[in-house]
Design goal:
The complex is a heterotrimer of chains A (about 260), B (about 270) and C (about 250). By secondary structure, chain A is α/β, with parallel strands linked by helices. Chain A has helices at about 45-55, 95-100, 100-105, 110-120, 140-150, 170-185, 195-200, 235-250, 255; strands at about 1-10, 20-30, 35-40, 60-65, 70, 80, 155-160, 190, 205-210, 215-220. Chain A has 2 domains: about 1-80 and about 155-255, Rossmann fold; about 90-155, no CATH class. Chain A is built from 9 helices and 10 strands. Chain A has a 6-stranded mixed sheet, sandwiched between helices. In chain A, strands 2-1-4-5 form a 4-stranded antiparallel sheet, with helices on one face. In chain A, strand 9 and strand 10 form a beta hairpin. Chain B has 2 domains: about 1-45; about 50-260, MetI-like (MetI-like fold). Chain B has helices at about 5-40, 50-65, 65-100, 100-115, 120-130, 135-155, 160-170, 175-210, 215-225, 230-260. Classes of the chains: A alpha/beta (about 260), B mainly alpha (about 270), C mainly alpha (about 250). At the B-C interface, helix 1, helix 4, helix 5, helix 8 and helix 9 of B face helix 1, helix 4, helix 5, helix 6 and helix 8 of C. The structure holds adenosine-5'-diphosphate and magnesium ion. Magnesium ion binds near residues 46 and 47 of chain A.
């Protein structure tokens, strides 16, 4: 599977005020099994790009194809989302939440619950399958959201700041766990993040986006086999990459903003 | 995460138990005191009959064909009022729910009428429908209509955009959007709409019958109270009160159960 | 802006529909003027009533009954809510009792109130006060029992005395909840006082409406409905304006 993004531009038409061009002329290729992280200042169009990849938004110009076939709308078996605010259905039990997409696809109850249970096991939550989301911590809810996406067996997972709402510690712990799960499942993943550590630790490639309007300003390759161990964060190559990213994002903002 | 609540469970249960004991004791105590005060003549029995007399009057009433007929007439007016008020309310609420423009134009005026004493429109109903059961039913429908509209709209307001987005992202078709997101999210409002629909259909019919009616419970109460048959008035009133309180308590329980998934624990708050 | 205009156009359309139906009903081929009076006649009556001192004194009576009923309901409701909300046990005992009281169809008791208090102002005040009491007591109890323990901890840690905790911590913490009960209670006081006047009384706006309608002074009845709507709008405005909380505590 290969996703091709060819000079994609998206302009939001607004009821009040001028239209906003969120992303312009994005070119990108995501290959099978690859883990790509997207990082950049707030409002630079990361979510917009991700939503275009998932068919939730239609580009104003340019096109996105998967194995040559154009994307026309959301299709969870091709691209499944993990949203920042989890957005589990509070009125459904954990296992039914994980089975949501399968239910929409018309899979029979017993079967979809079996699949969902397997994914819950994978993210280590099979013991709370019958609980309701409100009874779970934020980290657990986010793992359910990951299970919900995995249950679709998607060709590509689209994660929008998946751990943004968690505290630093759970974020790292769950991050490592999920990173292992996704690597073992050989998933293709595009993940938006605000954390430099996360962006590097998880990814094969880090794409840095810039503002006004959003586009990709730099690309880094993280040359270390996945899954990685925690001590990867203490290596020199990690440090160098991190310093470079930091400089790009925080140190010299004009470089990011200027065209 | 569940541990602490399990640990605290035992004393809390004990407290609930002794609280309900004390509550029963209070209720029984009040009834006993009431009986005694009437018996020793501190309270005039013409104004407030003793509980034992009220119970006897209740038994009398239940066997009295005239009273049965009055209950039947009132009951059918309430049912008619509920059906008319709820269906009209649902229809209007769905129209307002579908269009933001309509909602902004008419929800305000509807909320205003909701907060007025609707009894001031009673003369119009009597003029148009006369004194029969239809008049009471129409007024009951009028009362309940506004509650149904406001509650259903309130329910639709609970539908969250992000859940609709998830539904779209996971391939929901239109029927799924309604069955899996809109309906469950709006259910508390819809449930409340039915409850307030029946409650106000009932109250509206009662008010209309007390105001002017040629039959039903209202005139029955008026006749008995004019004749100073306080025990019969109290019997009717308490009979209906018991039904209303039991229905209300059951509804609260059902509502709490239904909202099990809500994180706020469905904090019931008094509303009109 | 365009949106606002459309909203008002729709509202005006609705009014035109309402008055159109009225005009049609009173026009040739419509219903008898005994049932539905002509708009112009109602308007004449309205002007007559608004300039009559009798109408104003009736409105005054209704207002006094309403205020008295509300004052009693407010004080009794908040005090009961506060006392019963002081310990979890008391709250547990009292809450269902108050909730049941709130479920009682009080309308049915009105004939008894006439029996007990007569047809004068007292019965309206007592009746209005009772119906306003329950929502105020219920929400106050909820508010006081659900006070966030953190506030009380702060109060203890900074050496607040018992009454300081009551007045400076518990009251403000419970206030949003109490106020929401007060708004409902006030609205209920108004609804019941007017209804009570209509059902049996000798004075007040509700009584005037009942009298006009029962003596088939149809135009006057319609004009009185209009006057009552204005009265209600003013009371509603006062409730919403003065009863607004300025903060939330999410008890
Ligand atoms: N629905 C929308 N309507 C109009 N403008 C939008 C909408 N969504 C996002 N934008 C604008 O598009 C730009 C990019 O937004 P977004 O993709 O959410 O950025 P990011 O996820 O990188 O923070 C921002 O300037 C934002 O204000
Ligand atoms: Mg974003």
């Amino acid at each position: 599977m290969t996703m091709n993004i060819e000079s994609v531009t998206l302009t939001y038409e607004r009821a009040k005020g001028d239209p906003v061009t969120a992303i312009r002329d994005i070119d990108l290729e995501v290959r099978r099994g690859e883990f790509v992280s997207l990082i950049g200042p707030s409002g630079c169009g990361k979510s917009t790009l991700l939503h275009c990849m998932g068919g939730m938004l239609r580009p104003s110009s340019g096109r996105i194809t998967v194995d040559g076939e154009p994307i026309t709308g959301p299709k969870p078996s091709r691209a499944a989302f993990v949203f920042q605010d989890y957005s589990l259905f509070p009125w459904r039990s954990v296992v039914d939440n994980a089975a949501t997409g399968l239910r929409f696809a018309g899979v029979r109850k017993a079967e979809r619950r079996a699949v969902a249970m397997k994914q819950l096991e994978l993210v280590g939550l099979d013991h709370v399958a019958e609980s309701y989301p409100a009874e779970l911590s934020g980290g657990m809810q986010q793992r359910v959201a990951v299970a919900r996406a995995l249950a679709m067996d998607p060709q590509i997972m689209l994660m929008d700041e998946p751990f943004g709402a968690l505290d630093e510690q759970s974020r790292r712990r769950i991050g490592i766990e999920m990173s292992n799960v996704l690597t073992e499942a050989e998933k293709t993943v595009v993940m938006v993040t605000h954390s430099l550590d996360e962006a590097i630790f998880w990814a094969d490639r880090v794409l840095v986006m810039g503002k006004g309007p959003g586009r990709i300003v730099r690309e880094f390759v993280v040359d270390a086999p996945r899954p990685r161990r925690l001590d990867f964060m203490t290596t020199a190559s990690f440090d160098t990459l991190r310093a470079e990213l930091f400089g790009l994002l925080e140190g010299a903002p004009e470089e990011v903003v200027a065209p | 995460m569940r541990q602490p609540s399990a640990q605290r469970g035992a004393p809390r249960q004990r407290r609930a138990h002794s609280a309900s004991l004390l509550r029963s004791a209070i209720v029984i105590g009040v009834i006993l005191l009431w009986e005694i005060l009437v018996r020793i003549g501190v309270i005039d029995g013409d104004f407030l009959s003793a509980p034992t007399e009220v119970v006897r009057a209740m038994a009398d009433l239940l066997g009295d064909p005239d009273a049965q007929e009055a209950f039947r007439r009132t009951g059918s007016s309430i049912l008619l009022a509920f059906v008319m008020g709820t269906s009209a309310g649902l229809f209007v609420a769905l129209a307002l729910g579908a269009s933001r423009l309509l909602r902004e134009a008419f929800l305000g005026p509807i909320a205003f009428v909701l907060s007025t004493p609707k009894s001031i429109f009673l003369p119009i109903f009597t003029l148009i429908f006369g004194l029969g059961g239809m008049s009471a039913a129409a007024f009951g429908a009028f009362e309940s209509f506004f509650y149904v509209v406001v509650n259903v709209i309130g329910g639709l307001g609970l539908v969250e955009q992000r859940h609709l987005k998830v539904a779209d992202a996971f391939g929901a078709r239109t029927v799924h959007r309604y069955a899996d997101v809109i309906l469950p999210a709006a259910l508390p409002g819809i449930f409340a709409a039915f409850w307030y629909g029946i409650k106000h259909a009932f109250l509206g019919v009662m008010i209309a019958q007390l105001w002017a009616s040629d039959g039903g419970i209202g005139p029955l109460i008026r006749t008995y109270s004019a004749a100073l048959k306080t025990d019969y008035v109290l019997a009717i009133v308490l009979l209906i009160t018991i039904v209303a309180v039991v229905a209300g308590a059951l509804w609260t329980r059902a509502e709490t159960r239904m909202n099990r998934w809500r994180s706020t624990g469905a904090a019931t708050v008094a509303t009109i | 802006m365009k949106h606002k205009i459309a909203v008002w156009c729709l509202r005006i359309l609705g009014l035109i529909g309402l008055f159109g139906a009225w005009a049609y009903a009173t026009g040739p081929g419509g219903v008898s003027p005994i049932l539905v009076p002509k708009m112009s006649v109602v308007w004449e009556q309205f002007k007559l009533l608004v300039t009559s001192s009798h109408t104003w004194s009736s409105a005054g009576i209704t207002a006094v009954e309403l205020l008295a009923a509300f004052a009693i309901a407010l004080v009794a409701g908040v005090v009961v809510g506060f006392i019963c909300g002081r310990t979890p046990f008391r709250a547990e005992v009292a809450e269902p009792l108050i909730a049941w009281g709130y479920l009682v169809p009080l309308v049915l008791f009105y004939p008894l109130f006439i029996l007990w208090f007569g047809v004068g102002m007292q019965s309206k005040i007592a009746y209005g006060a009772l119906s306003g009491f329950f929502p105020i007591a219920f929400n106050s109890l909820r508010g006081f029992r659900a006070i966030d323990q953190r506030y009380l901890k702060v109060a203890r840690a900074f050496g607040a005395s018992g009454s300081q905790t009551d007045w400076q911590v518990k009251m403000p913490a419970a206030l949003p909840m109490v106020l929401s009960g007060v708004r409902i209670g006030a609205a209920l006081c108004m609804i019941t006082v007017i209804l009570a006047e209509m059902l049996a009384s000798t004075r007040g706006l509700g009584y005037e409406l009942a009298r006009a309608s029962q003596t088939l002074q149809v135009a006057e009845a319609f004009a009185l409905i209009l006057i009552l709507l204005v009265f209600v709008a003013i009371v509603q405005y006062a409730i919403n304006h003065f009863g607004k909380e300025r903060y939330r505590t999410d008890a």
